[in-house]
Amino acid sequence: MTDDDLIAAARAAARHSYSPYSGFAVGAALRFADGSVVTGTNVENASYGLALCAETIAVSKAMADGLRGGLQAVAVTGPAAGPITPCGRCRQVLNELAQLGGTDPDILCVGADEVVRVKLSALLPHAFGPASLT
User: Fold this and answer.
1) What positions carry a catalytic annotation?
2) What is the model's pLDDT at position 134?
């Protein structure tokens, strides 16, 4: 799967967003070394603090399916004109999954006409994760 395919998967996931309060539909797609792709979309809640981000849902789905390593790339897309990045919570959740496989995945921050590629370690330097507990 190419980066363009991964971005398309994230955009397709965003179409299933439940975002009646913000109107900010986000999609995420995770690519693994074994070729697996897992997607997620944001799910808002009337109690705003209970909203779930697209990246967190995708990671949860991956973990539920037994994927514990090999995270290579993540595409995140939303309705903003410029590229969007994962929020701080999502960076930490992605880091947990990445550290389980010892990877530093590319994060494709997607806007309407621009994609910014950045390593997860650049988005979350000096991250706390499983290795921090040993």
Assistant:
1) 55
2) 81
